[in-house]
Amino acid sequence: MPDRIPAIKLVLLPKDTNAHGTIFGGVILSHIDLASAVEACKTAAHRYVTRAMHEVEFHEPVFLGDVVSFYTETLRIGRTSITVRVSVEAERWGAGPGAAGGTGHGELIKVTEAEVVLVAVNDQGRSVPIRPEPAQV
Questions:
Q1: Does residue 104 surpass a pLDDT of 50?
Q2: What is the DSSP-derived secondary structure letter of residue 130?
Q3: pLDDT tier at 95, thresholds 50, 70, 90
């Protein structure tokens, strides 16, 4: 979809690679966490903490030099929590080690997806309502 705008888009660096030359899964998870917080802030400006990551699936490796985009979508908004789906795509400009048959010219590859549950918290770390609660009369 050409009109999609990623919450985060970046190129991963040599410091992010493992001994096999691919990007550490933990690095991808860290960026998923950040992207989900960016999406949550669109709903309401709070401080958010990650409560859980569900259904994290790694489909393909990410190689050094891939342009990686993190697309987000709010799935559910509760009283104090938000669930965000994060889809990660790599734009591959050159075949990585062991990658056979790729075109190597801006090929888009779905690499990871996850659901993240975030909770809105105050300065003391206590959960707070995402939206103002109606006044009780």
A1: no
A2: S
A3: low
For the chain, the domain total comes to: 1
Contact 71, 4 (CB under 8 A): yes
Report d(CA 111, CA 87) in Å as an integer: 8
Asked whether the predicted pLDDT for residue 106 surpasses 90, the reply is no
Give bridge partners of residue 125 from the DSSP assignment: none
Structural domain for 99, as ranges:
8-121
Residue 86 near residue 28, CB atoms below 8 Å = no
- The runs of H, that is alpha helices, within the chain are 25-43
Q: What is the CATH number of the domain that holds 63?
A: 3.10.129.10
d(C-alpha 128, C-alpha 121), whole Å: 5
Distance CA 32, CA 21 (A): 20
Q: Is residue 85 part of a domain?
A: yes
> Does 129 fall in a domain?
no
Tokens of 101: 């048959």
